[in-house]
Every structure is written in structure tokens, then in C-alpha cells.
Specification:
The chain contains 3 helices and 9 strands; from the N terminus they run βαββββαββαββ. The strands form 3 sheets. It has a 4-stranded mixed β-sheet. The protein has a 3-stranded mixed β-sheet with strand order 1-6-7. The protein has a two-stranded antiparallel ribbon with strand order 8-9. The C terminus is likely disordered.
Length: about 140
């Protein structure tokens, strides 16, 4: 019986990786945040590290192109069964997101994890909050 390799909770397309590299060259180390608040939707926000304060309920899902990707805890509860695929589409980025003004924006697509993939996921936790989310469905 072969062991399954853990699947990433968040990945980026090549076009997203290129935009991340361009933004990193201009702004230094970056981070992403997908919220569940009033600005929720399919656009994750990209910030220079240090320009966005990670909250106690924010969860680190992984990294894309070397940039940590966070999601609000309540949003994760809704999306915990999905892999996030970060892409770039035409349009305007969020007002505070670093890609704003480039006539493109980051866009989150998703797909459901298969049962086999879900079995390989590691629990994720909130930085400094002392709690951990379990496996999908748990």
C-alpha cells in the first residue's frame, strides 16, 4: 500500500506566481489574507509583511510563491473542505491589495478535496491562539 503525499490547502497558478514575484521585487516580503468580512469574495488581499496585522483567529493555510497565506477562522470553517487555487484575472484589486492599479487582481478558485486527499491534510492552527482546527469533516 502506497502512502499518499499531503496535498496543499492553497496553491497558485503560474500567472499568480509571476505577479507575486513582481510585487515582492517592488514591496519586499509579502503575505496574503482571505477574509470573511465585508470585503469577502473571491479576491484575497496581498500585503507587504508588516502592513497587515494577523489576528488571533486567522489561520495559516500555507504558502504561495514563498508568501504566507492566511484565512479568517470563520471563513476557514466554510472552506475547510476545499483547496484554494489563487489565480490572476483582469480587473481591479482590492483597494488595499498591492496589485491594485495594475488592471489585474488575484482571484480565488476552489475545488473540493477528494476523500483520499482529505485524509492527508494536517490540522491547521491559529497563530498564538492555542487552538487547532482538525481534519475536514471533524
Amino acid at each position: 500500500m502506497s502512502e499518499l503525499t499531503a496535498v496543499a490547502r492553497v496553491i497558485a497558478t503560474e500567472s499568480a506566481e509571476r505577479l507575486i514575484e513582481a510585487l515582492r521585487a517592488e514591496h519586499g516580503p509579502l503575505l496574503f489574507h482571505q477574509s470573511g468580512g465585508c470585503c469577502d469574495g473571491s479576491s484575497p488581499m496581498c500585503f507587504a509583511q508588516g502592513d497587515f496585522l494577523i489576528g488571533d483567529q486567522d489561520i495559516l493555510l500555507g504558502e504561495i510563491a514563498g508568501a504566507p497565506f492566511y484565512m479568517s477562522g470563520p471563513q476557514f470553517e466554510v472552506w475547510r473542505h476545499t483547496q484554494l487555487i489563487i489565480d490572476v484575472v483582469p480587473g481591479r484589486g482590492g483597494m488595499f491589495s498591492l496589485e491594485n492599479g495594475r488592471e489585474v487582481r488575484f482571484h480565488t478558485r476552489s475545488r473540493l478535496f477528494t476523500d483520499a486527499e482529505a485524509a492527508t491534510l494536517t490540522p491547521v492552527g491559529a497563530p498564538g491562539a492555542g487552538w487547532t482546527f482538525g481534519q475536514p469533516g471533524g
